[in-house]
């Protein structure tokens, strides 16, 4: 028989922190806090199994569940001394979702469940606080109506604002009992007009609320969030039902969110916000801007540390206790009811990459966790937040406004006012989403935006939490920002910013600037460098860079590459001073004209290679000889064709005839790679001469000894390799004789065609190393061009033909198996064969774990993926060691 319900509270919990699969993250946390004897309201958790049953059985609940639910309520009545639905001493409940992975704000919550007219009167009499009783009633009506009964939330909000305006109410403290009575009756009327039925029976409310929370698991916003954060759809959500504690009972009550360390910077001090006389949703929704838990500024006298010093001390102690228990930073929700503190939830805090690294390294220094644990806590993909631009404050800049620094980073973009417009405009522009406050429905718009700016809300609001999770710059609570959605503009004083205008936000300082401002490349913090150094201690898979320009090579060195794993020489040919000579070389009608163009290219290639080798300074450099089809270099416009004809002193017709002769139906599978080297051996000969000349000159002039690796692309047959190997050796021998020296090098090939993978045993006899080109290997294995997948791939993913994009994450079962076959056959015939990979997959953490598992020696990725790859490589080894 299924156990649907687990209890927690003052008498301990039936579950524990390890039961997230059954109880969800929130339920497991409540059970664990019960076992730690922390002050939490009594309640029970309905398991994730009920959610899965609900969806498998046409939105119905199990037959025995209702009986279990009644028993659970009776137990809760016994522990609290209150009665559910009673008119004298009523028990009111909160109903909250709780998946095993945190999904902040994405699913539904209902507070004050069990309310009706009689309960409202009873609470008014018990507390002597009519405003509290009526305020709690109107909150329940709005939440229950919009969540369980599907009434548009806008109807409630519009009615509330309309009556506030009629009654000349502008501040929360101006709300009266008479006003709230009007609102309660108005809200009841809205619900009755929508569904035409009574909803005052408490058990009916409870059942409908449970179903509503379960249904919110498949809401659009929840599905989108799970997709963005790779959370499986079949996990389901648990439901936590607790006796209500009220933060809106007056000036001695409050509600808030606190982090045991700052989730934005990682600083080791309490960080959070609270609202006096409010309920929890007021803080996270962003509809009101809260006060800080603590402040370093003596002139701020509204922090909890000042206003509620005893509660602050108690909360600080609980935060420390929970952090030491979990050995991780905690995100804690709390309520203060008439001077008594209650903890409603604890979970591992979502944090920025900057904070993640500082917290992890600090905890190692504090002796709380090991280096391995610190490395495993860093999400490699999140490091992209630290590798992009920030505002250059060395210039004189004048912000037009300032809000709260909710999520670090700088972003420039055009102003949009809705998630719909953000999605539409993001195809062509970077956008800044400007809102009064964000809601879970805004998740798609937030995801595509470069940054988020809200007029309301604090640093623990929905906008702030989600932005930090997405790695987006965010400024919240910019109270000077006055938004007029109807006119599609916002004002800051006399300044008007219209839809489509450019603004820049700094999520690290909260500053807002008009237009575009200068940006600078980020610098590593000492903690970032420390965690990367630790990663290198454990990683066995070396990380190289794909680089061929001075800029790429410089960035690669800065980010800790141990060499270049792919230098694409064709990129050098696209420089303005070389492309005319390359075209002349290709179009040349005879070998003499071709050699003439090549001889003019040679000194330019020598210059480029010297610059590259100088930066890498004795680190290994793997140079791929010319790979792409020749058509990529050829002119396409009439004016460029004419210019080429003039330069070569040839009739335009001859040039056009030559261009036509070079035309290919499918060039990516045509005359490219090693096939070019065989058809035009003088091209590869020139490249090798340039490489060796650059090496020799640097040896003599600057005492730099380059570790050279020469790589032949697109081999499909060992005979191609044998021919080119002979050509290469002839050039090198001639250069050695001429220079009276010996050139050390290793020769390798790319394995990027299925036949090459299958024939790897024969190929391995001819080379020193393999470099797997997973981009082309994926294309040729699937028979899909990655340049053309956009037209049908979304459909394939939606229909679950493919579980993921194989051009982003390696297909281990297909492409991965070919790589394993090639490794096995290659090593059999050449036990000293070195193995690397240089496709886009080399920067993907999931793929890196696979490459580590199958025994590659190095991975080579784009420069800005190097820190990600270094952490992922270390994590792969740590996982292997257990």
Concise summary:
It catalyses: pyruvate + phosphate + ATP = phosphoenolpyruvate + AMP + diphosphate + H(+). This protein has 882 residues and is an alpha/beta fold.
What does this protein look like?
The protein is of the alpha/beta class and 882 residues long. It has 5 domains: 239 residues, ATP-grasp fold, A domain (Dna Ligase, domain 1, 2-Layer Sandwich), CATH 3.30.1490; 98 residues, ATP-grasp fold, B domain (D-amino Acid Aminotransferase, Chain A, domain 1), CATH 3.30.470.20; 132 residues, Glucose Oxidase, domain 1 (3-Layer(bba) Sandwich); 155 residues, TIM Barrel, CATH 3.20.20.60; 180 residues, Alpha-Beta Barrel (TIM Barrel). Helix content is 45%, strand content 17%. It contains 34 helices and 33 strands. The strands form 7 sheets. The protein has an 8-stranded mixed sheet with strand order 14-24-23-16-17-18-19-15. Strands 26-27-28-29-30-31-32-33 form an 8-stranded parallel barrel, surrounded by 4 helices. A hairpin with a 2-residue loop joins strand 11 and strand 12. Helix 6 packs antiparallel against helix 7 and helix 13 crosses helix 18. The model has no long low-confidence stretch (mean pLDDT 91).
SSE blueprint and pairings:
Elements: E1 5-8, H1 20-35, E2 43-46, H2 48-56, H3 65-80, E3 83-84, E4 90-91, E5 93-99, E6 109-113, H4 117-127, H5 130-147, H6 153-166, H7 177-195, H8 202-215, H9 220-228, E7 237-243, E8 254-259, E9 271-276, H10 280-285, E10 291-292, H11 304-307, H12 309-326, E11 330-337, E12 340-348, H13 353-365, H14 371-376, E13 390-391, E14 401-402, E15 404-407, E16 410-416, H15 419-425, E17 431-435, H16 443-448, E18 451-454, H17 462-470, E19 474-476, E20 482-484, E21 489-492, E22 495-498, E23 502-506, E24 511-514, E25 519-520, H18 526-538, E26 542-546, H19 550-558, E27 563-568, H20 570-573, H21 579-587, H22 591-616, E28 620-624, H23 638-648, H24 652-662, H25 674-679, H26 681-702, E29 707-712, H27 718-739, E30 745-751, H28 754-758, H29 760-764, E31 769-772, H30 774-782, H31 793-798, H32 815-829, E32 834-837, H33 845-853, E33 858-861, H34 866-881
Parallel strand pairs: 3-4, 16-17, 17-18, 18-19, 26-27, 26-33, 27-28, 28-29, 29-30, 30-31, 31-32, 32-33
Antiparallel strand pairs: 1-2, 2-7, 5-6, 5-7, 8-9, 8-11, 9-10, 11-12, 13-25, 14-24, 15-19, 16-23, 20-21, 21-22, 23-24
Helix pairs in contact: 4-5, 5-7, 6-7, 13-18, 18-34, 19-22, 21-22, 22-26, 23-24, 26-27, 33-34
């Amino acid at each position: 028989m299924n156990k649907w319900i687990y209890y927690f509270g003052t008498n301990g919990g039936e579950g524990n922190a390890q039961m997230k699969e059954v109880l969800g993250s929130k339920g497991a946390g409540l059970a664990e806090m019960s076992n730690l004897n922390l002050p939490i309201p009594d309640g029970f958790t309905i398991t994730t199994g009920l959610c899965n049953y609900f969806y498998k059985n046409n939105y119905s609940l199990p037959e025995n569940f209702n009986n279990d639910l009644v028993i659970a309520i009776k137990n809760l009545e016994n522990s609290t001394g209150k009665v559910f639905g009673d008119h004298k001493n009523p028990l009111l409940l909160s109903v909250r979702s709780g998946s095993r992975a945190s999904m902040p704000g994405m699913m539904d919550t209902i507070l004050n469940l069990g309310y009706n007219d009689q309960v409202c009167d009873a609470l008014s009499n018990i507390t002597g606080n009519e405003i509290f009783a009526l305020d709690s009633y109107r909150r329940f009506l709005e939440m229950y109506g919009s969540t369980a009964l599907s009434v548009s939330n806008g109807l409630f909000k519009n009615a509330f604002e309309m009556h506030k305006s009629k009654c000349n109410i502008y501040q929360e403290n101006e709300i009266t009992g008479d006003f709230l009575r009007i609102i309660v009756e108005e809200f009841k009327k809205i619900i009755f007009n929508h569904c035409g039925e009574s909803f005052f029976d408490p058990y009916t409310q409870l059942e409908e609320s449970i179903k509503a929370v379960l249904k919110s698991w498949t809401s659009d916003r929840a599905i989108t969030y799970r997709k963005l954060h790779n959370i499986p759809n079949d996990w389901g959500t648990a439901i936590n039902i607790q006796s209500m504690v009220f933060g809106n009972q007056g000036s001695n009550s409050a509600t808030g969110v606190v982090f045991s360390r700052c989730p934005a910077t990682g600083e080791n001090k309490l960080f959070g916000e609270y609202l006096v006389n409010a309920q929890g949703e007021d803080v996270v929704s962003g509809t009101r801007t809260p006060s800080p838990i603590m402040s370093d500024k003596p002139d701020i006298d509204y922090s909890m540390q000042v206003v509620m010093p005893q509660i602050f001390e108690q909360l600080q102690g609980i935060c420390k206790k929970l952090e030491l228990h979990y050995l991780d930073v905690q995100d804690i929700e709390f309520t203060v009811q008439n001077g008594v503190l209650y903890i409603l939830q604890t979970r591992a805090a979502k944090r920025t990459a900057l904070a993640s690294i500082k917290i992890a390294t600090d905890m190692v220094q504090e002796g709380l966790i090991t280096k391995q644990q610190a490395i495993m806590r860093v999400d490699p993909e999140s490091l992209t937040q630290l590798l992009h631009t920030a505002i250059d404050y060395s210039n004189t800049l004048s912000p037009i406004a300032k809000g709260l620094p909710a999520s670090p980073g700088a972003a420039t973009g055009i102003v949009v006012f809705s998630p719909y417009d953000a999605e539409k405009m993001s195809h062509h522009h970077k956008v800044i989403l400007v809102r009064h406050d964000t809601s879970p429905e805004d998740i798609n718009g937030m995801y595509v935006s470069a940054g988020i700016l809200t007029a309301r809300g604090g640093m623990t609001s929905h906008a702030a939490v989600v932005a930090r999770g997405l790695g987006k710059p965010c400024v919240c609570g910019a109270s000077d920002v006055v938004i007029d959605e109807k006119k599609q503009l916002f004002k800051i004083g006399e300044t008007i910013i219209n839809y489509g205008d450019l603004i820049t936000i700094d999520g690290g300082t909260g500053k807002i600037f008009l237009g575009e401002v200068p940006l600078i490349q980020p610098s590593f913090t000492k903690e970032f460098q420390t965690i990367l150094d630790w990663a290198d201690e454990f990683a066995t898979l070396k990380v190289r860079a794909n680089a061929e320009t001075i800029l790429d090579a410089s960035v690669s060195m800065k980010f800790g590459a141990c060499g270049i794993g792919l230098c694409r020489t064709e990129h050098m040919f696209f420089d303005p001073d070389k492309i005319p000579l390359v075209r002349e070389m290709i179009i040349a009608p005879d070998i003499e004209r071709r050699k003439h163009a090549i001889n003019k290219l040679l000194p330019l290639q020598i210059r480029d290679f010297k610059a590259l080798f100088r930066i890498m300074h004795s680190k290994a450099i793997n140079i791929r000889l010319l790979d792409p089809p020749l058509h990529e270099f050829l002119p396409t416009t009439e004016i460029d064709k004419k210019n080429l004809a003039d330069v070569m002193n040839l009739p335009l017709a001859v040039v056009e005839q030559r261009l036509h002769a070079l035309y290919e139906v499918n060039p990516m599978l045509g005359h490219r790679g090693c096939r070019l080297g065989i058809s035009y051996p003088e091209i590869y000969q020139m490249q090798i001469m340039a490489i060796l000349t650059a090496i020799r000159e640097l040896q003599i002039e600057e005492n730099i000894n380059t570790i050279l690796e020469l790589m032949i692309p697109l081999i499909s047959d060992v005979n191609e390799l044998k021919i080119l190997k002979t050509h290469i050796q002839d050039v090198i021998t001639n250069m050695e004789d001429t220079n009276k020296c010996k050139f050390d090098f290793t020769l390798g090939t790319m394995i990027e065609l299925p036949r090459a993978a299958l024939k790897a045993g024969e190929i391995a006899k001819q080379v020193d190393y393999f470099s797997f080109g997973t981009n082309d290997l994926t294309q040729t294995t699937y028979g899909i061009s990655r340049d053309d997948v956009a037209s049908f791939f979304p459909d394939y993913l939606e229909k679950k033909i493919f579980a993921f994009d194989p051009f982003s994450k390696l297909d281990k079962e297909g492409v991965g198996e070919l790589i394993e076959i090639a490794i096995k056959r290659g090593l059999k015939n050449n036990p000293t064969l070195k193995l690397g990979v240089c496709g886009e997959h080399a920067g993907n953490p999931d793929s890196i774990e696979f490459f580590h598992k199958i025994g590659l020696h190095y991975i080579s990725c784009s420069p800005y993926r190097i820190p990600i790859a270094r952490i992922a490589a270390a994590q792969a080894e740590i996982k292997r060691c257990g």
